[in-house]
From TrEMBL, chain A:
InterPro entries: 4Fe4S_Fe-S-bd, 4Fe4S_Fe_S_CS, Helical_ferredxn. The lineage of its organism: Bacteria, Pseudomonadati, Thermodesulfobacteriota, Thermodesulfobacteria, Thermodesulfobacteriales. It comes from the Bacteria. Keywords: Iron, Iron-sulfur, Metal-binding. The keyword Transcription does not apply. Pfam families: Fer4_8 (PF13183). This is 4Fe-4S ferredoxin.
From TrEMBL, chain B:
PANTHER family: ANAEROBIC SULFITE REDUCTASE SUBUNIT A (PTHR40447:SF1). The lineage of its organism: Bacteria, Pseudomonadati, Thermodesulfobacteriota, Thermodesulfobacteria, Thermodesulfobacteriales. Pfam families: Fer4_22 (PF17179). Gene3D superfamilies: Alpha-helical ferredoxin. This is 4Fe-4S ferredoxin-type domain-containing protein. It comes from Thermodesulfatator atlanticus. InterPro entries: 4Fe4S_Fe-S-bd, 4Fe4S_Fe_S_CS, Helical_ferredxn. The keyword Phosphoprotein does not apply. Residues 210-242, 287-319 form the 4Fe-4S ferredoxin-type domain. One of its GO terms (molecular function) is iron-sulfur cluster binding.
Length: 326, 325, 280
């Protein structure tokens, strides 16, 4: 058992016993060696179910809406804490209704990277530092953690939660020095090649199951634009135009909000690289406005703020037209 | 009738079929597509062969979008299609859906126009449990031919006349019955049938429905459509009118009972408003409503839901809870 | 007697011969339809309580109870303007062509009711299929015992089929109790909710059946009254509605537990309903 798991159980017991929260949201063992599951724990006895996961790929903040009216403690690595912060900023959650049990995050492993290591994966042992032992039907493999990490963890700028009520002891991954490498690879392509990538990698493979939307802790509209029937903005089949519209609007709804928890991509049953769309918007927010989401519950939101010095190079102006830029 | 097909004779056979029919094969782990050389045989595909019968988009009617215009009925695909590499669980799914869809003309047309060549798995996948759902992958149910990979050959069992005709395009030679039957026997011995189904048959419907476990099991569920869209037996559909310019089409498309919209009335009232109610409805349909009505569960044990569920909901956690309540 | 419904999803073209605005608020209109195909029109035979899918090209389809009786020349639907399709339907003029699929569902077992007293209890616009039933019963008057109808609306302007109501009121061979929720100028009839009026009328459950159609809240409070009057759950008939896509038992949207409203209903006895999950 990892010591982080012990610390989490201990902290969860304390939180429940002292009445700091009624429920603790965290992770438990999944049904496969490379899966973990979000779980809610209501009593100190049940805390033995909680673990620090290798594969905590869904953001438990997404379950908060099912526990309305209860004070909830969340096992919070950086991205969970940041999602809650955005929910607070947007008035969806009150800061004093949640208790953030911060965890300095060593990064999570990517289930599909582990799954592909053998025909049958029998056991996974993670030291949460350097190495992972994967026992497959063909034998044992020891793999460097770095090779098995989720892409969003490799690109994470805030492994340690920026906001918490209590921070567990532990060693977080170092913030990524090059979070936008993958985005830049796509950016470097010609417009037509970028469009082709979008069509092939995203649009043509999407089955419109909305797992990405439903997994997102920040997708909470009571009626999503794809579900509206009067007017019906988007068709419901796998028609490429409709599917493209869904993905573009989904990504844009997360501009200046997404905390890159990677739930969308992890949830996708077709393994579509959805994060690249939101990551691109994150990069824009950072470069244009020096803005990162989910760092301060009191801070204003990016899209509700205007400053004189904000760049406006995206606006269609006479000046730009005269310069021949548009 | 049993035959033996050498592994190296598979490609030439597929080429031969492709010359006479439209041939579909598993192309990548994603799913099936027209045969163009790519072939994925390492395991079952993410998307099942269900889409050949309940396609992602089935036009029913076309009409001119002006008042008084009379709709024209769309003729389904008539060309003969052959699908190679269908896993026996997927074929069994077709048989289960047919219990409901047999009167549907669009279904009938697709069934008549499609031959299925089955391929038994080299070994069961991590999450497979066809045996527990009463599926014998060697039976050839729903298939025209069934192939069993065995050492350097495929053992082939002919199920239908259409299958025999297809096999005649290959270099397969008669024989292999003994090996086929012993593989089948080995397989059966490995996997006993689960007692859960018997228990579910006897249980009172409302006792399961009202049981307290649903809330806890449904908590992590995202209520997305991943399980239903990947499932080879989920058959619910939506109907949409699509109008582009002056052209209108009424289409049928897969729908997930997990979606809030699925049961919402025009008035806004929703009899299954809570995420838990929708979660429960899916499992009740598969393992109680359908079981009671047709004598079999609406599940073939392919394990796609367990493998791909974003929230790691495990079917057996639910089935066990249902059968033990 | 009833022709087997067409088991496919292809609507037949039907012409709107007449449109009647039924209520003061204009939200309910009756559409009188004739199938373009003469043979199909001749062969269209339904049982009161059945429904049909009406479709407006470009908008979609929705299930609506058939408000006309089998003997009537035109097929009539009284439609509440509430969703995408009904909204489009309301905008259509007389002479327009729409699509019709049906009759669908089971209808009331009227043969089984022969020799019995029949009590029809309706609230709001759910009266439609009970109108069809009443017309049928009156045409076969000698086959049935006492016929009683209790029908309530929020105000007099929301009562449907006003001319027919006036005619039924005058008949000696049936009793009609009309009620509105609150006093209104010019209204000299009963005032009160349907359950209260049912309690006052106190129909006897002996050798009788009750057919109840109305909003959930009305049904909830009417059922205990009927029980007090001696109606067993096998004697009370309700009509369910749920979101529906196909109407022929395929798409599964309308399931109430194992019960498919389109295939096994919409008409159901209270006894059968009590055995189902409350998903309606």
């Amino acid at each position: 058992m990892s010591t982080l798991t012990e610390k989490i159980r201990e902290a969860a017991q304390k939180v429940l016993a002292e009445g700091l929260a009624e429920v603790v949201l965290g992770y438990t063992q999944g049904s496969l060696p490379y899966r973990n599951r979000v779980t809610a724990v209501n009593t100190p006895e049940e805390t033995s179910r909680l673990i620090w996961p290798s594969f905590g790929v869904l953001n438990p903040a997404n379950v908060l809406h099912k526990l309305k009216g209860k004070k909830v403690a969340l096992i919070s690595p950086g991205c969970v804490s940041r999602a809650v912060v955005v929910l607070c900023q947007e008035g969806q959650v009150k800061r004093d209704e949640v208790y953030l049990l911060g965890v300095p995050c060593p990064g999570m492993l990517d289930p599909s990277k582990v799954r592909d290591l053998g025909k049958k994966i029998l056991r996974v042992e993670d030291d949460f530092k350097e190495k992972v032992l994967v026992v497959t039907s063909e034998g044992e493999k020891i793999v460097a953690r770095e090779e098995l990490l989720r892409q969003n963890c490799l690109e994470c700028r805030h492994p340690t939660p920026p906001v918490y009520d209590e921070l567990l002891e532990g060693e977080a991954r170092k913030p990524s020095p090059s979070p936008y490498q993958k985005v830049e690879e796509i950016e470097a392509r010609e417009v037509s090649a970028r469009w082709q990538w979008f069509q092939e990698a995203v649009v043509s493979r999407c089955i419109r199951c909305y797992a990405c939307r439903n997994a997102c802790p920040l997708c909470y509209c009571p009626t999503c634009f794809v579900d509206d029937s009067r007017p019906q903005w988007v068709g419901k089949t796998r028609d490429p135009v409709d599917t493209a519209l869904y993905h573009l609007v989904r990504a844009y709804h997360l501009a200046g909000r997404c905390v890159d928890c990677g739930s969308c991509e992890a949830a996708c049953p077709m393994d579509i690289p959805l994060r690249l769309l939101t990551k691109k918007l994150e990069k824009e927010a950072l470069s244009a406005f020096s803005f990162e989401s989910g760092l301060d519950p009191e801070a204003p939101l990016l899209l509700t703020t205007f400053r004189e010095e904000d760049p406006e190079d995206f606006m269609i102006t006479q000046e730009l037209k005269a310069l021949g830029k548009i | 009738m049993y035959y033996i097909l050498k592994r190296e004779d598979l490609r030439p056979w597929l080429e031969a079929i492709n010359r006479e029919y439209t041939l579909f094969v598993p192309r990548t782990r994603d799913g099936f597509g027209p045969y163009e050389g790519e072939l994925y045989l390492e395991g079952k595909t993410r998307l099942s062969a269900k889409e050949f019968f309940l396609p992602w988009r089935e036009p029913l009617l076309v009409y001119e979008a002006r008042p008084g215009a009379l709709p024209k009925v769309v003729e389904g695909p008539a060309e003969q299609r052959v699908v190679f590499g269908v896993r026996p669980c997927d074929a069994r799914g077709v048989i289960l859906i047919e219990k409901v869809f047999s009167p549907d003309p669009f279904w009938q047309k697709r069934r008549e126009a499609t031959s299925l060549i089955g391929l038994v798995c080299e070994e069961p996948g991590t999450e497979c449990f066809c045996w527990a759902m009463g599926v014998n992958p060697f039976s050839g149910e729903g298939l025209d031919l069934v192939l069993v990979p065995h050492e350097e050959v495929y053992l082939v069992k002919v199920i239908t006349e259409a299958g025999k005709k297809l096999l005649s395009l290959s270099r397969a030679a008669e024989g292999g019955e003994e090996a086929f039957l012993s593989r089948e026997k080995e397989f059966k011995a490995k996997f006993p049938v689960s007692p859960a189904l018997e228990k579910l048959r006897e249980k009172d419907l409302m006792t399961i429905y009202e049981a307290p476990f649903w809330e806890e099991l449904a908590l992590p569920c995202l209520n997305c459509g991943a399980c239903t869209f990947l499932c080879p037996t989920c058959y619910c559909f939506d109907v949409q009118d699509e109008v582009v310019g002056s052209e209108g089409v009424r289409v049928r498309l897969p729908e997930a009972c997990m979606f809030e919209l699925y049961s919402r009335h025009a008035s806004g009232h929703n009899p299954r408003r809570s995420p838990m109610a929708r979660f429960r409805n899916r499992f009740m349909h598969k393992f109680k409503y359908f079981l009671d009505e047709y004598g079999e569960p609406l599940c073939v044990g392919c394990g796609r839901c367990n493998e791909e569920c974003p929230a790691n909901i495990n079917l057996w956690d639910v089935v066990r809870a249902m059968s033990e309540v | 007697m009833v022709a087997a419904p067409k088991k496919d999803m292809i609507p037949l073209p039907a012409k709107i011969e007449k449109v009647v605005v039924e209520t003061d608020d204009g939200l309910l209109k009756s559409f009188y339809l004739r199938l373009l195909d003469e043979e199909a029109q001749r062969e269209f035979k339904h049982t009161p309580g059945q429904f049909a899918m009406l479709s407006v090209a470009g908008k979609g389809e929705c299930p609506i109870g058939i408000a006309s009786a089998p003997s009537e020349e035109l097929i009539m639907f009284t439609v509440f303007r509430t969703g995408l399709v009904t909204d489009a339907l309301h905008r259509l003029p007389e002479g327009a062509i729409i699509g019709l699929r049906g009759p669908l569902g089971n209808g009331y077992p009227l043969e089984k009711f022969r020799g019995k007293n029949v009590v029809l209890i309706a609230g709001g616009f759910a009266v439609t299929t009970l109108r069809a039933t009443l017309v049928y019963l009156l045409e076969h008057r000698e086959d049935y015992g006492e016929i009683t109808m209790i029908y309530g609306a929020r105000n007099p302007g929301l009562l449907l089929y006003k001319e027919e109501l006036a005619a039924w009121r005058k008949r000696e061979d049936m009793k009609l109790y009309l009620t509105i929720d609150r006093e209104a100028p010019g209204w000299d009839g009963l005032v009160g909710f349907v359950p209260q009026i049912t309690e006052q009328v106190a129909p006897s459950g002996e050798n009788a059946v009750a057919l109840v159609c109305g909003p959930p809240i009305m049904i909830k409070f009417t059922l205990p009254v009927l029980e007090k009057c001696g109606f067993g759950p096998e004697q009370v008939y309700l009509s369910l509605e749920n979101r529906m896509r196909c109407g022929i038992g395929l798409c599964h949207h309308c399931n109430v537990g194992p019960f498919l409203v389109c295939r096994d209903g919409p008409v159901i006895t209270l006894a059968a309903l009590k055995r189902l999950p409350p998903e309606y």
